[in-house]
Amino acid sequence: MWNVLLSFSGLVALIQLLFLPFFPESPPYLMLQKEDKAGCLKAMKQLWGEDNYQTEFDDMMKEKAVTKSTKIMNVLEVLKEPSVYPQLRTMLLLLLSLQFCGLGATANLQESIIPYVSLGVAISELISIIFCSSIIDRFGRRILLWGGYLLMALILLLLETSLLLSDQLLWMRYCSVILIFLFLIAYGIGP
Question: Which residue range or ranges hold the Major facilitator superfamily (MFS) profile domain (predicted)?
């Protein structure tokens, strides 16, 4: 019954995908990234109810003034910055720990292929982190969340199908592994 459990996470992603368009953008995103003061105030009222949010709005304006003088760094510049090394070590530790997640057993593969699957999982996570950090400022969190959940729901549907057919068609096991990699990339880019 593990495949039913796997399908459950797809159902949750689908529910989140359906409700996400009804939520407003994040007020700090609207203010700091889009420079939309009216949209920011509207989102505050929609999220937090009718009230006076001038203090929060002033805080965002101060943050905006501070961030204007801050240089935006790309991925390579961040990797060269010594102050982020503790966070990078933590991320690398998490990526390496994914090798022990058991995805090879999920896809019902030969034992000799499982180390390659574990390596693929770590590479998929790394790709998603680099890709997401490169595009999040351009597209915003809402689009990445929406697209990520949509991709995850589609991939989980395909994964369930490939796992059901893996006993009849042995090559479907490899499709399952590829779909697992794609799911991890979609999860890293979106949620």
Answer: 1-191
